[in-house]
Specification:
By secondary structure, the chain is an all-alpha fold. Helix 11 crosses helix 12, helix 11 packs across helix 13 and helix 13 runs parallel beside helix 16.
Length: about 280
């Protein structure tokens, strides 16, 4: 459908409203539905066109509608994705579709797909976990050697949070890619690793320590620091009790770096406190 002046005016006006579920992204879907129904805006008044669009504002129900939804600026934000509008059933259908958009050549599509995937994993994880087939396309993407490293953090977050232990090797491989190349998203992999299997987080730390070579100011070193911060902030005493020996070994390796970096020294102190608290719990 061509963007007539009237259509442009009405869509712009609706996008500025505070109506639930009405965003530039859902309006793009509504506009396509008008076109599919052969409803021309030219024969409608401004009010009638607005009503027709609002009646068709919904979240995508096909991959083609998802493409339209993701192609719109401004970029999606978590606040623009309402809990009461995107159901568990939506999530199960969306996960396979989003796999095809995570490395899309269009930057807007790519970024919106990653935001929506992260939101779904955060808010609809139980539904996704209950339907493991919904993650199969994500798994194929993770197994494809041509997949962009920029997608790795999202693959770790999705499979780590909602997948199974069969995804362990995929998750670890892409976590290592993030540690080497994508510092800004290291918190995603920390959450995914911890949710999948806590020792996976320890393995990622060991990978970092094997490769940092005391250069904590490198991009890789700063990424590892962020990962260490995440581990030091774990409050679950069961984690520290269960993995006491492994974490104690990591502390000893960290101490060799602490002399050249004050923040490493702080992290060592925090980890040692957590280990001490877990030992006190055992004594009591």
């Amino acid at each position: 459908m061509s963007q007539s002046p009237l259509l442009h005016k009405v869509i712009s006006a609706l996008a500025r409203t505070d109506l639930a579920g009405v965003t530039p992204h859902t309006l793009a879907v509504a506009r396509a539905r008008l076109n599919e129904e052969n409803i021309s805006p030219e024969g409608l008044s401004e009010a009638a066109l607005g009503s027709a669009l609002l009646a068709r504002v919904r979240y995508p129900i096909t991959p083609a509608e998802m493409n339209l939804f993701l192609s719109v600026s401004p970029l999606l934000t978590p606040a623009s994705l309402p809990l009461d509008e995107i159901s568990e059933q939506h999530a199960v259908h969306y996960m396979p579709w989003l796999a095809g958009f995570l490395s899309d050549p269009e930057t807007v599509v790519q970024q919106n797909a990653r935001t929506l995937l992260r939101w779904l994993v955060t808010h609809r994880c139980e539904a996704i976990r209950a339907e493991q087939r919904s993650l199969d396309a994500i798994r194929r993407l993770a197994d494809d050697p041509s997949t962009s490293p920029k997608a790795s953090a999202y693959l770790v977050y999705a499979l780590g949070s909602c997948g199974t232990l069969d995804d362990y090797d995929r998750v670890i491989r892409h976590a290592e890619i993030v540690i080497e190349h994508d510092r800004d998203r290291v918190m995603l992999i920390a959450d995914g690793l911890y949710r999948l299997y806590p020792p996976a987080l320890i393995n990622a730390l060991q990978f970092f320590l094997d490769h940092v070579h005391a250069d904590m100011k490198s991009k890789q070193g700063m990424t590892g620091m962020s990962l260490l911060d995440k581990v030091a902030d774990i409050e679950d005493r069961a984690f520290w009790k269960t993995y006491y020996d492994q974490m104690e070994q990591i502390v000893e390796r960290l101490k060799k770096l602490a002399g050249t970096n004050n923040h490493v020294e702080y992290i060592v102190d925090q980890i040692e406190k957590n280990l001490a608290y877990s030992a006190l719990d055992d004594d009591s």
